[in-house]
Amino acid sequence: MKLMERNLRFGLVPLLFFLASTQLLAQGMAPACLTLEEGKVRACSRLVEADSECRSFSETYAFIPASCRGDEELSGIEAINQRIAAGESMDSIFEQYPINQVATALVHRFYLRNLLPFTSDADWVSPNFSYFRDGKIQIALREGLISSVLERGFLNQHQTSTTNGSRDPHGRNRTENILIDRALEQSYSSNRDAIIHKLRPKYAYWVPTKKISSAPHVYSRQYGNVFFALKDRVKRRSTLTNIDSLWINQDNTYTQPPAAANLYQYFRSNPERRAVTPMTSGFHSSNFTLVSKGSYSEAQIWGTLDFSDVEYAMINCPNQDRVSTDAINVMREKIPQIPIYSCTAVVSDGVYIYQPKDLLHGTPQNLDELSER
Q1: d(CA 305, CA 162)
Q2: 17: number of CA atoms within 13 Å, CB side?
Q3: Domain tally for the chain?
Q4: 256 located within any domain
Q5: Looking at 68, 100, 115, which one is the last position of a domain?
Q6: From first to last of its 373 residues, what are the pLDDT tens digits of the chain?
Q7: Host domain of residue 30
C-alpha cells in the first residue's frame, strides 16, 4: 500500500512498472529501479542518466537503478550513523565495522545533513555535471615512496609525521573535523598508530574528465612525480573541496560559521567560501562552485588506501620531474597489475589537466571517459 501511495504521489510510474514491482516484492526481490525519493536518500543521482530502463514517460529520469546502493550496504551505513548520533565512541564503532565502511557512512552522513536538504528535484532528474561520473581522483607520489606504499599503503601525516605540504597535525585535525562535520576525537591523539588516524583522509587532486567551461586546475611539483588515477569505488568515501582544504583553517570566518547554521547554510550564504561536498552527490548545480583558474579541486579520501585502489599510473607528466628507470622497474615488478602510461596535458584556457597518453606497461584501460575533453 505504501509503495502504491508513493508511486501515485509522484505520478511518474507507468502502471505496468508498478505491477511488475509488486510482483517482484511478493517474490522477495527488490524492484529494478528506485523512486526519486529513494534515490535521494541513497545519494544515487550519479547513475540516473546511465540507465534508460529507469526513464519515465515524461522523459525525465524519475527512477534510479536499485544497484546504485543495495539495501544491505544502506542498512550498514544507517546503523553506523545511528551509533554516531547516539554518541558512541569511534573506537567502539571500529570494533564492529571495517574502517572503510565507517568512512563511507561518515561521508553519507555529511551528505544527508549538509547537502540533501538544499537540493531540488531538478538537481537529480537532469544533472548537467557529475562529480562522480565526470571526474577522476589523481594522487601524486614521490617515486622514492613507492616501496613504502607497497608495504603500508598510502598514509597521511598523522600516521607518518611527515608531509610534502604543511606539517601541522593539530591544524589538520581541526580542518578534518570541519570536512566531515563532526569531531573525530575528544582530544587529538599523538599516537601515530591510533586507529582513528587510519580513518583520516589521504589528499589528492580531483580533475574533470568532461569538458567544462573552464578547467579549474593547476598541479604542484611538491607532492610527487608519479600520478595514480584511483578507481571510482573510492569516491563513495571521498569529499571534495574547491580549494586547498587548508584554506578552510586559515580564515576564522571560514572555519567557524555561526553556531545556529550548519556548514552548507553558511557556504550557501557565502558563495566565495562554498567549499565542501561529498563526491557521491553526483551533480553540479548552484550547490557547488568550481574553483577559478589558477587553483585546484582537492579530494579527501577517507579510510585506508593502497595500490588495489589504483586504476592506472602516469609518469613523466609535463612540468614534473622525470621518473627514473629504477622506479619504473619497481612498479613493473611489484605492482604489475597497474598499467603505466606516459603522461600528456590537455590545455584548457591555459590550465593543465593530466591524462594518460601511451601505454608503457600492462593491459590498456577503457579511457573513453577522457575522450570528451
Answers
A1: 17
A2: 19
A3: 2
A4: yes
A5: 68
A6: 443 344 433 333 333 333 333 343 333 444 567 777 777 788 775 555 555 666 554 445 456 666 677 788 888 999 999 999 998 999 999 999 999 999 999 999 988 887 777 777 766 665 556 677 778 899 999 999 999 999 999 998 888 877 666 667 888 888 888 888 888 888 888 898 999 999 999 999 988 776 655 545 678 788 889 999 999 889 989 988 776 777 664 443 344 444 434 444 555 555 444 467 777 755 544 444 454 445 677 899 999 999 999 999 999 998 899 999 999 999 999 999 999 999 998 765 555 688 899 999 998 876 654 444 3
A7: 2-68
